[in-house]
């Protein structure tokens, strides 16, 4: 962090209104960039940015040290994106996977059956992650929290689960030829 920015944060923490306004302008692009990676929709990104800027404005005086500013700010963004995600998800409670809602042809039905069979025979550690992430649409941090594993483990298991399913479905296609 530059000396100029550190000084700006110090002044804003001490209640300097001009420094706070300048800090809000400087931080907005970083907040938006981080929110784009964290929020689930573009509407949530815009909402999160506005809420985070408001919280920064209101709570900057609570910051204990300048060195923790960036982590503190991004933690607020992360929490806000998660809160907005939960609100959006609760409005769309249709998170259950329903085969009956999908349009069907004979080929589609065969693929669905193969897919279900491939998921069923996945080892439990991969099946849990796949269902939570791809079917129930939980975020990686949520899946990690539910299963008591790291986000990296979630990503690794999800990748492995998808690879196993692809291999099984491709081998089914080859054996049916």
Structural class label: mainly alpha
CATH class of the largest domain: Mainly Alpha
Q: Mind telling me the CATH superfamily name of the largest domain? A: RNA polymerase sigma factor, region 2, helix turn helix motif
Which architecture of the largest domain would the CATH scheme give at its second level? Orthogonal Bundle
Please report the number of helical segments.
8
Distance between the termini: 61 Å
CATH fold-level label of the largest domain: Rna Polymerase Sigma Factor, Chain: A
What letter string, H or E per element, gives the SSE order?
Answer: HHHHHHHH
The pLDDT mean sits at 83
* Largest sheet geometry: none
Rg, alpha carbons: 23 Å
Protein name: RNA polymerase subunit sigma-70
Domain RNA polymerase sigma factor 70 region 4 type: 115-163
InterPro entries: RNA_pol_sigma-70-like, RNA_pol_sigma-70_dom, RNA_pol_sigma70_r2, RNA_pol_sigma70_r4_t2, RNA_pol_sigma_r2, RNA_pol_sigma_r3/r4-like, WH-like_DNA-bd_sf
Family: Belongs to the sigma-70 factor family. ECF subfamily.
